[in-house]
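Quick start: read one record
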Amino acid sequence: MLLEFFDHLLSLFLDTAIWLLFGLVLAAVLKGWIPTTLVEKWLSGTGAGSVIRAALIGAPLPLCSCGVLPTAIALRRSGASKPATVSFLVATPETGVDSISVTYALLGPVMAIIRPISAIISAVVSGMMILLFDSNDNNRDFSAKAVADKKETSCCSEKKEKVSSCCSKTETTESSCCSEQSEIPKPSGILAGLQFAIVDILDDISKWLTIGLVLAAVVATLVEPASLSQWGSGLTAMLLMLVVGLPLYICATASTPLAAALLAAGMSPGAILVFLLVGPATNIASIGILSRELGIRAVIIYLLGISICAVLLGLATDAILSDQMISVGTAMAHHDSGGFMIIKWAAAIILFVLAVKPLRQFIWKDTTTACA
């Protein structure tokens, strides 16, 4: 049984690695080419337009559930409306370029299309519900002093004071965790994007991805294929996935291997979709922070919007894919040629080196020392 577990674990990791690396490269391109100020500008304003823009902007962004919260709060305090903030909060963690590529690898092309479309729909509906039932946007009214204080004290604030070195003719600026200028030159453009993808995103998701892969391997080892088929579809299965997913703290990429294992065990594609939508979008830890920023009423509407949309979209998915349940779960299985297996192993080794922080730092230190 132990050998079977490691066999499943290795297989899942090999299937995931190449597509996750591809997603990280796309994340780097997005980060390097799309300025944050442009995103803030698109999310400002009120009305349905800002809600739709927030969903379309948030869906491809490579931010997991742990990274979207501070980003959304920063956007909110930068002028984004409450409905747009909620739309961004729903769309961003539910999907992304990295999780879409992993979904394609483990769940097939059909689910890779359905998942981001469902995320955008649920985000727009949740934002519209805020627009209709919680139009009071008092939390957005910051005084000029509060905004000025935030700009001066925030970790992303612009640096005001310049410090000159007594031994240098060049002036240096006081650095911050998000400043664009510091004493040590920082990469820009696509290099900055790659640094963001490897250091920020991969470090954020690596632990949860490992947990997801291990749980998926456990499920694949202990649960016989199709053993959950008797109660793995219909409204009961959707509600079960809703109860499991709502309080869970898991990112979109890490939830995909577990969803693939549940699908192979007999859960329907619709029930899996419910889990893939609510798991990354909500967790108990974030509700208190969101209540302070958006208000309790908005958080209740936010949770209701996600839950209702997830169940309805899950039922619709089962209706569409009723005759394709097996093909969705096995679309990418058992078709690899020898050449592609070499690529998968190479991607797995690269991903392992990048994900293990001490190993990555050791190699990077040796490289920079050799170049010095």
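Confidence is low (pLDDT under 50) at residues 139-182, 326-335, 366-372.
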